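>> Question from a student workshop board

For tomorrow's exercise we were told to take the sequence and the ligand below, predict the bound structure, and bring the output to class. My setup keeps failing. Could a helper post the expected result so I can at least see what it should look like? The ligand is cytidine-5'-monophosphate.
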Amino acid sequence: MSNPNEKIILALDLDDLEQLEKIVCPLQGELKWVKIGLQLFTKYGPSVVTRFANLGFSVFLDLKLHDIPNTVSSAVRSLKDLPIGMLTIHTCGGSEMIQAAVESAEKTNPNLLILGVTVLTSMDQVALNEVGVDKTPETQVSDLAKIAIDSNLKGLVCSPLEVSKLRKMLGTEPFLVTPGIRPSGADFQDQKRIMTPAQAIETGSSFIVVGRPILMASNPLVAFRSIASEINV
Ligand code: C5P
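>> Workshop helper replied:
Here is what the output should look like for this input. Compare the format with yours to find the bug.
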């Protein structure tokens, strides 16, 4: 993957489709990946995936599936006719669930990259303790990452601040996809533990997820190009 533009995933976190199209159409031919999450998928259904794929984008479907193995496997199979290149599942569903998802994708959509979410960045030590996890968030991330990779998952979603440790632990092969990105000088909004695009790529992220710094920019194309040039060094 030599083109740095292909490392940027634009999170489509608005529910006004016309507004989103106004933002993404000028990026056609430069931006490759868009991320469709629960907000758009629950409002518009699978057709929203096709809509952005038909505009020429590769779609990362961020559904964070978490259920019994049979249900997750069936959900992955149900997605087989949708043009998606990446899909998220929760690694805390355990190795059996993860393997069921991977095996289902191998049978129905072999090019699909399934990514495991470890600990949501909204969860701190207190929140983990509340749900019975008696470990630090950092240890829980490493433990879940190991389970995920041992269960044949090829990639993870994580904070850019976790990348260096995960790279040491897992090597260069797994795809590490990192949100929590803010270009230097940008508004942090609700993101607290952030890195700049260049720092995130330098530390070993395979892809960076960027939402508001592009969506809310007065000129999204300029904002996108500036991020792309920042990582193209
Ligand atoms: O607007 P912003 O760049 O903060 O958007 C980041 C995107 O990454 C959002 O879609 C958000 O839900 C997602 N995300 C995140 N932190 C995580 C996992 C996903 O910000 N740990």
